[in-house]
Amino acid sequence: MRALIPFDASNPKTRLSPLLSAAERDSIARLLLQDVLSAIEDTPLEPEIVSTASISASVPVTVDDRPLDPVVNEAIEDGTPLVVLMADLGLLEGEQVQALLKTPGDLVIAPGRGGGTNALVIRDGTFRVDYHGVSFRDHLRLAEREGLSVSVVDSFRIATDVDEPEDLIEVLLHGRGEAAGWLTEAGFHIETTGGRPSIERTG
Amino acid sequence: MRALIPFDASNPKTRLSPLLSAAERDSIARLLLQDVLSAIEDTPLEPEIVSTASISASVPVTVDDRPLDPVVNEAIEDGTPLVVLMADLGLLEGEQVQALLKTPGDLVIAPGRGGGTNALVIRDGTFRVDYHGVSFRDHLRLAEREGLSVSVVDSFRIATDVDEPEDLIEVLLHGRGEAAGWLTEAGFHIETTGGRPSIERTG
């Protein structure tokens, strides 16, 4: 089964700017992508990266600078089933990918924190994505309108995409991939002196 | 099996002050507690609330104003197995409680966002809790030191405790209980005019 992984190669992860330079944000974005690819590795999924600009990767890359919706919808028209995974799921592991694949439904959806859609399994070619706004809610409504059967997957590891500085706490604590290793190497650690955990950098 | 639900009855949910009055924070805290009790209802768990002050509830309430750690540790000494659930898990449903109970291990732990521990199943009386700081990491280390077998449960619904204004987005989107209903009644809804979803109040 095809797995589409959209990747923003131009100035990624701007909300991490308080902690990381542009080059570092570029690094962490690519390592998160690498971690998503690793999670897929021992599954039947055949990953394809759709990137806004040319990048080197161990799997096929298509460069397409259109917005996310037409890119994904064109892939759905090309043929389902199709899996769509966000490229910044720093906690994703094979177990969650397998759980998505074995969940029945015309549409299998796993929410991201804040109303997003972090993983989709699309088994019906009439479905269309709309990643703007509260996409989780919109995707449920779109599926309902088409009369599709929908399953929701409950996973903290899928729900945690890496956008904000505090998301790095989750990667440091629960991540077992390249991004987590890079953060530790770069001097990031969790401080609890103020009571609530926060991310700090030494060195 | 006993299920301990610690409840802070005095000035709860202070971090929701930008959105809610003291009386409203009191209301939402009690409704979240009610939703946790509802999630337990059709499970073999026998809930006990340990509250910092007297509250009325449909299940036994013990008033104990000591910090959380000695309260829970005393309950562990009284006898295991024991389940400890946070009182502000606004997305918790029976399915997640059943998943906790059927997961093997001397210690079953489900993380909360930000390093917390939102659910514990303690099946070995030598374990002790330490809810300060990065409690998820600390609990893993404590279990390892005692040579206990540990399972980690991956659940977005368990990981989402309600502390910050943006956590209310999750309750509005994914909650199906009393707290979600109250928020809607109170005029809260999700706005996406700025691009990213935010919580707003009308009326």
**Largest sheet properties of chain A:** 7 strands, mixed
Estimated share of beta-strand residues of chain A: 15-25%
**Which pair of chains has the greatest number of interface residues, and how are they split between the two chains?**
A-B, 27 and 27 residues
Category from helices, strands and their pairing of chain A: alpha/beta
Principal-axis shape of chain A equals globular
Query: From N to C, what is the helix and strand string of chain A?
Result: EHEEHEHEEHEHHHEE
* Rg from alpha-carbon coordinates of chain A: 17 Å
Tell me the total number of β-strands of chain A.
9
Account of the protein in words:
- Two copies of one chain form a homodimer.
- In chain A, helix 1 (22-40) runs antiparallel to helix 7 (178-185) and helix 6 packs across helix 7 (178-185).
- Chain A is an alpha/beta fold and 203 residues long.
- The N and C termini of chain A lie far apart (44 Å).
- Chain A is built from seven helices and nine strands; from the N terminus they run βαββαβαββαβαααββ.
- Chain A has helices at residues 22-40, 68-78, 94-102, 135-145, 156-159, 167-174, 178-185, and strands at residues 2-7, 46-51, 61-63, 82-85, 107-111, 117-122, 150-152, 188-191, 198-201.
- A seven-stranded mixed sheet of chain A has the order 3-2-1-4-6-5-7, sandwiched between helices.
- The interface between A and B is medium-sized, with 27 and 27 residues.
Walk me through the topology.
The structure is a homodimer of 203-residue chains.
Chain A: E1 2-7, H1 22-40, E2 46-51, E3 61-63, H2 68-78, E4 82-85, H3 94-102, E5 107-111, E6 117-122, H4 135-145, E7 150-152, H5 156-159, H6 167-174, H7 178-185, E8 188-191, E9 198-201
Parallel strand pairs in A: 1-2, 1-4, 2-3, 5-7
Antiparallel strand pairs in A: 4-6, 5-6, 8-9
